[in-house]
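Thread: Newbie trying to understand structure tokens

Hi all, I'm a second-year student working on a class project, and my supervisor (Dr. K.) asked me to get a predicted structure for one chain before our next meeting. I've only ever worked with sequences, so writing a 3D structure as a token string is new to me. If someone could post the tokens and maybe explain what I'm looking at, I'd be very grateful. Here's the chain:
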Amino acid sequence: MNNAIITGASRGLGLAVARALAAEGWRLTLDARTAADLERAARELGRLTEVVALPGDVADAAHRRALVAAAGERIDVMMNNASALGPSPLPALADYPLDALERLWRVNVLGPLGLIQEALPRLHPGATIVNVSSDAAVEDYPGWGGYGSTKAALDQLTATLAAENPGLKVYAVDPGDMRTRMHQDAFPGQDISDRPAPETVVPALLDLLRNAHPSGRYRMQQPAEAQA
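---
Reply by user tm_fold:
Sure, no problem. This is what the structure looks like when written as tokens:
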């Protein structure tokens, strides 16, 4: 049975990918910060496959250790999807609270790297790491400097991990704008109903998991498109 860890799996892209893998019979180890939302997702997915759900924060080292331990000895896919946006409305860098920025880096950069460090001994040759990035990592959108800086750092970590672990497939994935709670929080009071649902991204992401694409940064279009 294929085995995956997916963080931030109670809603949005994480839940959409978990649903697709559950339908194929993957064993899933899931996390999210909100226990009630994660429990609801686990009940749904548990009708299809074996699910272990651990609420917690990827910034917490003990939680990361528990996730990897729950996943078992062989991990096929690790998807670092859990992420924080930071203050909303999004502040300019000149006004960015540094304690909030430090928290953002702990969740969006150190959390994924710490989880990868824990999981590496259990990632067999050919296993896949997916780090969910953003176009804010490469574009200079006003207000997105805090969040974007964390995703730019995650992109760099992804590229270096790929160079250091040539036996693994290591991807930074930019899913594009999606109709999610985080995206709504970034645009309070605005109508984001024109954004595509997270489910529209899943086919291109599954293509990365199933096929021999080289490690790198990908925009989730159909098919998955490599980005320099």
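A couple of things are worth pointing out once you decode it. Residues 3-227 form a domain with the Rossmann fold fold (CATH 3.40.50.720). The chain has seven helices and eight strands. Feel free to ask follow-ups in this thread.
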